[in-house]
Amino acid sequence: MVRRAANPIPLEAFDIHVIARPERQLRRAEVEMITGLSASSIYRLLDAGRFPRPLRITPRCVRWLESEIAEWQASQVRTGVSSLGN
Predict the structure, then answer these.
(1) Quick one: pLDDT at residue 82?
(2) CB environment 9-45: b (16+ within 10 A), e (fewer)
(3) pTM for the structure as a whole
(4) Beta strand spans in the chain (E)
(5) Share of the chain above pLDDT 90, in %
(6) In what helix (H) or strand (E) does residue 86 lie, and over which residues does it extend?
(7) How many whole angstroms separate alpha carbon 41 and alpha carbon 10?
(8) Is 61 helix (H, G, I), strand (E, B) or coil?
(9) Which end of the chain has fewer CB within 10 Å, C or N?
């Protein structure tokens, strides 16, 4: 027999940040696919300070936060500027 709590905790009492999934970390190939940029274009923009910096996971492994890539894309649409400066 399963016993239920007399006064269950309402869903509003939970902090959404505690039960939310961690943010996705994207590989460079995924960033290329999402943005339509080549690897060399991504690194050119990084050098110019015009693209989100990746997280260094190991000395040879980096990942970008999905939210930062989405924010960068939205800013490109809002400003309407060429991201490569061509």
Answers:
(1) 59
(2) eeeeeeeeeeeeeeeeebeeeebeeebebeeeebebb
(3) 0.68
(4) 25-26, 55-58, 61-65
(5) 60
(6) none
(7) 49
(8) strand
(9) N
Per DSSP, what are the bridge partners of residue 62? 56
Residue tagged 């269950």 (tokens):
8
Instruction: Say whether 55 sits in a helix, a strand or coil.
Output: strand
Contact yes or no for 69/25 (Cβ under 8 A): no
pLDDT digits (tens, 9 = 90+) for 69-81: 999 999 998 776 6
Beta-bridge partner residues of 64: 26
Please provide the size of the chain in residues. 86
Residue 22: band (very low, low, confident or very high) from pLDDT cuts 50, 70, 90: confident
DSSP state of 63: E
Average pLDDT, the chain: 85
